[in-house]
Amino acid sequence: MITNEKQYRMTRSALAKFEKVVEQLRAEPIADMHPRLQKAHINAAQSEIEVLQEQLAEYDALKSGRVELPELSLIEEVPRALIRARIASGMTQEQLAQALQLKTQQIQRYEASEYAGASLSRVREIAHVLIGKKRNPVSA
Amino acid sequence: MIPSFASDGDLPAGIHEATWSEFVARFGWTPHRSELLGGLESGLRALKSAGCRTVYLGGSFVTNKESVHYSPPRDFDVCWDEDGVDVDALPAVFFDFTVKRAAQRRQFGGEFFPSSTGADHTMLFIEYFQQDTRTGRPKGIIKIQLETLT
After folding, report:
1. Closest to A44 (Cβ–Cβ): which among B113, B121, B134?
2. Model confidence pLDDT, tens digit, residues A10-51
3. Which ipTM score applies to this complex?
4. DSSP one-letter string for A23-92
């Protein structure tokens, strides 16, 4: 996703290049190229145009304030959600620690402090393990 | 020899050649990645059968970004050189780019873009693969000769 003005400009620039390619290919097909391949070049460029337009539109919508953002309040609930997911999965703190190659003590500390001090990467890693456990209850 | 990753997780700028086994050894370091490699191999064999000789690999699969922030690659991105390819022998899925290449991702787990070393404007995807629109700095990609896929 686009997160700043510089990326926005670079994405617009990439979009312009693809649009130019499509325009050129439609106006003047490449000599001696199989028609199926001609079409593939146009369609491939066109599909990336759609991807880039979507990224630009998302950024525009966010900046304009047109988008409602309910997600932020969920951050408060993340630590509890991790603890609850672990309990619901049937994993002990020790088992979760093993799955992450951590000491049991570390998981205990995390849960006792409601994940104070845990990095976002760590939180995502734990969520990933718990989601995996949810889908495949046999293996962690 | 595939160079080490730069500190931002990208390969250093440039096109780095590797054999298929070097590629697998270097980029298949998790079960998820191995799974993606299976789909990639299947797509590359289909391309090879149709006469394709060279492919380029880009995107998050050829980066180390997941060790910087926990976010494994969702898929892989391939650019295939159409030189020598029997277009009528290539399966239809390689010509289907609809819905952000959904059919390709479903079948192989990644995306395949045609590239020509002919006219300038069709080099686009190879150049595009080397642009990092997040940083503006060029990033490296991998070139594989399909004869090394045995």
Report:
1. B113
2. 999 999 999 999 999 899 888 888 999 999 999 999 999 999
3. 0.91
4. HHHHHSPPTT--HHHHHHHHHHHHHHHHHHHHHHHHHHHHHHT-S---GGGHHHHHHHHHHHHHHHHT--
